Amino acid sequence: MASANFMSPTHSATPTWPHFERKVDEVRPSKTDINCLVMDYLVTNGYPAAAKKFAVEANIQPKVDIELIQERVEIRTAIHSGDIQTAIEKINELNPEVLDENPSLHFALLRLQLVELIRSCTSTPEGDISPALEFATSQLAPRAPTNPQFLEDLERTLALLIFPTENLAPSLAPLLHPDLRKEIAIKVNEAILQSQGARKEARLRNLVKLRAWAEQKARESKKDIPEKLDIGLVGNNTSQNGASSDTVMTNNGDIDPMIS
């Protein structure tokens, strides 16, 4: 019966796995192609130390000057550490048009800077909130009326001054989570790459998303594939809808989870 083809992949008599693995082998990419994908990932996402090491081990030549990646690394490091003012200054030194031509990204950075000010001034009971209020008034308030989302984001951020950090509502808690820094850092990296005429996302991440999409479509069409297909990456943290969560890098990109 047809239902026999959908046995659990852990069953020793599963007929699906050998057939599926033969299909995979038929389209297996070359080692050179895989190395180029990994190098593209390291360069695009800004991991110069890992890219240099991988270039030597794989005996391939990067298509760009790895030293140029360092500027993006420094900006990312500043954002991850909460030093948003330094990040903005470095972005403007690199190319002021990155923020001039992207008001949403500029506002997101300024709002993150406000979050960091609020984090600092509310860290003690006697903290002075005036720096945060002054920054919101001078930097964010003039921009808020230009976009309804800006106004909503500003109002939500200022609410952090009212409620205790240990008991924030679900809509406010993410503002103080480190993931917000990571999210903005990714957007900044993509904007810089786009301004340089490069792809804003690594080919490897696009392939991972495409693979997840293909699996979803295959299951929706009731195709005969194994019950579970691991993506094959460390941590296997790619969701069914193709979204992925990269590990936050340390040591300015000296270590990359994909090749360590």
TrEMBL record:
Region spans: Disordered: 236-260
Family matches, as InterPro entries: CRA_dom, CTLH/CRA, CTLH_C, LisH, Ubq-SigPath_Reg
Signal peptide positions on this chain: none
Pfam families: CTLH, LisH
Compositionally biased spans, kind Polar residues: 236-253
Annotated CTLH domain residues: 69-125
Described purpose of this protein according to its UniProt entry: Involved in the proteasome-dependent degradation of fructose-1,6-bisphosphatase.
Protein name: Protein FYV10
Organism expressing this protein natively: Aspergillus wentii DTO 134E9
